[in-house]
């Protein structure tokens, strides 16, 4: 009976329109729109990768081999299962252009192809021509940025190693570029047959061979994959098919999308504060209505259900608005997004992200409206005519406290389930909850401090009025500090993380990283190479090591991935070196090194941190496939390896007798003064054209570009959170307009000027904004420290420019919101206001 009655009351209340609920609706709609919009774009990208997977991969399936070509047995198997097979090699080299005044050089990612390339898709060139024509007679094509950097035009010649090629065209669209992963240089494409004699594909050189397969329509990818891996996986063969045409891109988009959803949840939490404040303000306005209903015999349950149903209906409206916005905006801006992304996208209506966003919206609305609704139920009828909520106890009935805790647990559980990253979700939830607790305590302290500071403000009436208002019983300090503070805390944490990542990459680089990483140095070239770099006074350090690549296939007789799971060490091929004795910079943490002249069964020294992560111990046996040959080795020691310095670091170091006979090359890092880098590169490249030099500063610049794009996406997500906080600020300022009007009327009656009253309002806003900014800064720094220390395992230092910007933003935001709603109270006539309040 009470439900039917409450529904009738709620329906009548809704006839009053949306007055008082505009901020409520805006907060919910914006939070839901942000989450559903991010999810829709992610789904569009995933659909594009799935739909175009075969083109991105270059075939229905791909077999990849490390630093070798396929054997006759492997080629025969590929020919038996595929209608067509295309062989592609991928490696880095130096593109050089000799000129009268010197030689221009640039690092390039080379793709050498056969006559069948491309099996799928189209290589679009400028000027337009078939691939066969572009690559005929030692022709080549390259990315326009590389051609411009080298000053090349079609018809000009350039060198790769000892080979001379003619540029025929520049690349407009490369169909399989997204499936190739991250490259350190722009693309150059030549024919594999033309690389003979160039010295670039010599035994032991660093290259990968990919065989793209055009399978029959009836082929079962699962069956073909199982057959391939069953036959050749332990030979180092890696399999990929069109279902995961660009796995690196897919993983990146998925992880970035999940993180942005968590940032969106932070925005929804900020919106929840606005929702709670709006509900409380609305119920305060309904004092006479609730009092009348209680006087006429309405039960507590009826009162609760009346406003629960009304606010629930409005919440569903806000969520629906957010879903429409989140679905429509990606569709509306689809052409712009598609032009900006280098990967295919399929924009349409995706139900899954909309349902996920709707669930978050419902749980957030229920979580933040339950408490004020429950407190309203506890108010006695005798006090309702005075203050609907002011006389209610702080904590509602136990059942509502339990329901609140359960709603919070369900929200966190749903976020962990949908994000696919429970650890990151718990960190985010803990950060939000900790920030809310910190901000709530800060709001109480701010009010207490304001009350205690009024005496100290004697002689400064505007400041004293501002402090008195902040510490007063009706001041909205809590809503301001919570909403703006949480938004600023998210922005502060992201700013600190972004700044620390930039610091780690840019500021620490000159002191820690080498100038050049030289690869593909032949054994007989090492003496001449070392003579050049070690005798240069500008060179402070030279490191070198033999290098080959291998795949860990088995651990203690079991498949490596079964033992190590998805650990990066067993996901692909790894660099391997050998050494008779450890050098002075090697620290053995456990076990013993082999004797210098050891020639017994193969032994290996494993990187200590990675071994611990995998669960390896001394005496474990591992099988390493090097160039198709299995080597069974025993782990006899662990050692420290620091991969963060961009220097030489190997997970696996073996005794020389175990691998020295395998074809291999040497690598070297050179630490030199920046002014000497160009001369070193020129001399080495002139003497040994096959050697590839990777300038570490350029490589770091590529990584920095990637981080910048990630940071921009995250900052946009944080901006949405901050916008929600600003909307809550506007709601709090609007809710306090009546109080400001009465205050202005009283002060005018007592002789205060409009200028002095406006100063008081501005000071109040600035003080609250500054306080919220300082507390948010503390929470953001703490959150940034936790993420950098425990998640990214990196050093942390406060980035003060970002920190000060957060505090300044807090002051500016509250000042703007406060002044927007200050003009009307300043313009009222005191007599009319005071007469109406009698």
Automatic annotation (TrEMBL):
It is found in: Cell membrane. The keyword Transmembrane helix applies. The keyword Membrane applies. GO terms for cellular component: plasma membrane. Its main location: membrane. It is a multi-pass membrane protein. This is ABC transporter, permease protein.
